[in-house]
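Hypothesis: this fold can be encoded by more than one sequence.
Test: take the structure tokens below, design a sequence, compare later.
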């Protein structure tokens, strides 16, 4: 039996993917959260270790009360807890990056394995499970080869969530995850900065409605740290797991992100001490509706501008390619 180059490459790809999934499952099966936190604490100074443990494992024991208040005042506290909105952003980012390497359907499958294993470590909290339902419905449609319909997908997801947890509609964590998901799906930009800013615009009014406050610099402070957060998360994961096997090497890897963690802490302390950033507002449902109508309008305008731009480029290409009558006569 002869094997072609494509068949052999496909077989190697499947074997590699299978080994990767097996490795992830073994890691999550035998690794405990306390062991991972211990590796970080032994590798980094107190402040930076606490930040990394919060960002990776949702552990808040490494924060002082003052620093945690600064995180809330700066609008960055959601980055150091395992929240539904974070799971949505991480899942999407993981799938989009893997899709370029192994194909979309395999990336979705591997993404599910990684995220479910991660949740097994940090704990199956209700807000996180609800977020997983939202993204699962979207990616299941893609696995079946169908285009995801936002309205139908949201209705199905909400029905499942409400049937499982009838009180969800009255919980702020549900609405934060719900709006973060809509922000991720409808983001007009593809970059990390644009996505983070757009999601923060969808989350902010929920904070205003439930807590009576809006953070004026939340979107800006998120833009200041979002790029380093991605690097911290990826390198932090690798360094922590490596530290379980070879502590010296793991410590070296984790120390490479110490400057980024220090920068994150400086932004938190600087912005978190500005007393004027949290404005008390009497948010009601009419203001909430108006806010989201404006976001929907902006999204539709962006779509129209994109279509017009593409149509203009298409006409320019054809006009340049077509020979003029003068040249034809000669």
């Amino acid at each position: 039996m002869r094997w072609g180059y494509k068949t052999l490459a496909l077989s190697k790809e499947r074997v590699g993917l299978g080994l990767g999934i097996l490795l992830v499952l073994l890691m999550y099966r035998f690794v405990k959260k306390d062991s991972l936190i211990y590796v970080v604490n032994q590798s980094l100074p107190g402040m930076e270790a606490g930040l990394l443990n919060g960002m990776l494992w949702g552990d808040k024991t490494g924060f002082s009360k003052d620093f945690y208040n600064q995180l809330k005042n700066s609008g960055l506290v959601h980055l150091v807890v395992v929240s539904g909105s974070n799971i949505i952003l991480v899942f999407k980012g993981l799938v989009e990056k893997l899709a370029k390497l192994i194909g979309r359907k395999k990336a979705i499958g591997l993404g599910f394995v990684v995220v479910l294993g991660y949740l097994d470590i940090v704990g199956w909290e209700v807000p996180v499970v609800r977020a997983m339902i939202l993204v699962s419905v979207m990616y299941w449609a893609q696995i079946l080869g169908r285009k995801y319909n936002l309205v139908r997908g949201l209705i199905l997801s909400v029905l499942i969530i409400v049937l499982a947890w009838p009180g969800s509609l009255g919980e702020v964590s549900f609405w934060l995850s719900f709006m973060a998901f809509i922000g991720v799906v409808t983001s007009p930009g593809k970059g990390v900065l644009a996505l983070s800013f757009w999601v923060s615009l969808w989350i902010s009014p929920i904070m205003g409605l439930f807590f009576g406050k809006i953070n004026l610099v939340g979107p800006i402070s998120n833009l200041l740290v979002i790029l380093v957060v991605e690097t911290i998360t990826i390198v932090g994961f690798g360094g922590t797991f490596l530290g379980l096997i070879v502590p010296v090497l793991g410590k070296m890897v984790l120390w490479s992100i110490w400057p980024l963690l220090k920068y994150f802490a400086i932004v938190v302390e600087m912005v978190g001490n500005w007393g004027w950033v949290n404005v008390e507002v009497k948010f009601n449902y009419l203001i909430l509706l108006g806010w989201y109508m404006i976001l929907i309008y902006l999204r539709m305008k962006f779509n129209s501008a994109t279509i017009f731009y593409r149509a203009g480029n298409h006409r320019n290409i054809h006009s340049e390619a077509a020979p003029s009558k003068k040249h034809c006569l000669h």
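The chain has a mean pLDDT of 77. The longest strand covers residues 213-215.
Hypothesis status: open.
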